[in-house]
Amino acid sequence: xxxxxxxxxxxxxxxxxxxxxxxxxxxxxxxxxxxxxxxxxxxxxxxxxxxxxxxxxxxxxxxxxxxxxxxxxxxxxxxxxxxxxxxxxxxxxxxxxxxxxxxxxxxxxxxxxxxxxxxxxxxxxxxxxxxxxxxxxxxxxxxxxxxxxxxxxxxxxxxxxxxxxxxxxxxxxxxxxxxxxxxxxxxxxxxxxxxxxxxxxxxxxxxxxxxxxxxxxxxxxxxxxxxxx
Length: 229
Fold this sequence. Notes:
Layout: E1 2-5, H1 26-30, E2 37-40, E3 45-47, H2 48-68, H3 70-74, H4 82-104, E4 112-114, H5 117-131, H6 134-137, H7 150-176, H8 199-215, H9 218-228
Antiparallel strand pairs: 1-2, 3-4
Helix pairs in contact: 2-4, 2-5, 4-7, 7-8, 8-9
């Protein structure tokens, strides 16, 4: 339910920490006309936190299904090469980190969003990345980049972990700008925020760039840029 002042497009009374009278100005109460409050049913809602948990669980679930049901999906069983193992590890490290951040780091200014958004948002993660990318990365005909030795793959994985660490630090900076239960905003500093506007997205894009180089799956990097946009 959303409450607005005057009409459906009026100021939303969304701050639960203040009394109803604080939403009115003296001019609102001086007139002869009654003050109008508009109640709008927003439909079935779902919490932001739950949507994030569902989104990030999808790529891990889809990837795990490709591994567990290898014979049923690809028609044969086979061993993964080193590049595929690195790609698998990157996927689980990234999305387990995201699940952890959703549970213990992120603070959401809004409690809920429309329930339909869980399907719209999850499509990017479950289908475009989980199915569209990992199906081919884990395919029996997949071949590692000819130029990349195991040492290069390990170096790329090291960079991936560093970029994930920097991304996590950015999320901690953003978390500490907002007190629990508030919607206040501040200016983030450090960990790249002095160089780019959204350092958290910058480091995450580099995570997916190392994944794409290591696996030759540049569709995953394109997916990331589209998601940011």
